[in-house]
C-alpha cells in the first residue's frame, strides 16, 4: 500500500480539504485542457472562446471542492463524531506553510503575465498563464500540505 495514501487513522479536517482540492484540481484542469484542445480542433488555440469555459471551470472547481469536502466530512463524522472538525497548532502551521508555497507560485505566474503583456501576447495566453498559475499554486500548496501531514514539518 502506498505510504502517501495510507492514513493510519482518521484524517483531520484540513488534510481532507487539501486532498479534496488536489483531487478536484487535477480533474478540473485536465478537463479544461482537453476541452480547449477539442474546441481548437487542430487550429490555433487562440481562436477558442476560452472565457466562458474558464469561468465555468473555476466555478465548477470551487463547487466540486466544497461538495467533496462536505461529503468526505460527513463520512468522517460518522466514523469519529467528536474529532471531525477539530484543529490544533500543527494544523495552523501546516496551513501557513502551504499558503507560503502557494504564494510563491502566484508570484511566478504574475511575473509571467507581466512579461506576456510586455511582449504584446494574445489575451488567450495572458489569461491562461494566470489561470495555470492559480491552478498550479493550489495543487502544489495542497501537495505541500499533504506531505507535511504525512511526514511532518521540517
Brief summary of the model shown:
Helix content is 76%, strand content 0%.
Could you describe the 3D structure shown?
- By secondary structure, the protein is an all-alpha fold.
- 76% of the residues lie in helices and 0% in strands.
- The longest helix is centred in the middle third of the chain and has 30 residues, at 50-79.
- The chain is flat and about 55 Å long.
- The two termini are 25 Å apart.
- Mean pLDDT is 88; it is low at 1-7.
What coarse outline follows from CA principal-axis ratios?
flat
Mean pLDDT: 88
Straight-line N-to-C gap: 25 Å
Percent range of helical residues = over 70%
Order of helices and strands: HHHH
Overall radius of gyration: 18 Å
Structural class comes to: mainly alpha
Strand tally: 0
Q: Summarize the biggest pleated sheet.
A: none
Relative strand content? under 5%
Number of helices: 4
Unreliable stretches: 1-7
Amino acid at each position: 500500500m502506498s505510504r502517501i495514501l495510507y492514513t493510519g487513522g482518521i484524517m483531520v479536517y484540513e488534510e481532507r480539504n487539501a486532498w479534496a482540492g488536489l483531487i478536484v484540481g487535477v480533474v478540473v484542469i485536465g478537463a479544461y485542457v482537453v476541452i480547449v484542445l477539442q474546441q481548437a480542433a487542430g487550429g490555433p488555440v487562440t481562436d477558442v472562446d476560452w472565457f466562458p469555459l474558464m469561468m465555468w471551470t473555476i466555478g465548477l472547481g470551487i463547487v466540486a471542492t466544497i461538495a467533496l469536502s462536505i461529503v468526505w466530512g460527513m463520512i468522517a463524522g460518522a466514523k469519529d463524531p467528536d474529532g471531525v472538525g477539530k484543529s490544533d497548532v500543527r494544523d495552523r502551521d501546516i496551513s501557513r506553510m502551504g499558503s507560503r508555497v502557494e504564494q510563491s507560485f502566484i508570484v511566478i505566474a504574475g511575473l509571467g503575465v507581466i512579461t506576456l503583456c510586455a511582449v504584446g501576447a494574445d489575451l488567450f495566453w495572458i489569461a491562461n498563464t494566470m489561470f495555470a498559475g492559480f491552478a498550479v499554486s493550489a495543487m502544489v500548496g495542497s501537495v505541500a500540505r499533504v506531505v507535511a501531514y504525512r511526514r511532518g514539518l521540517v
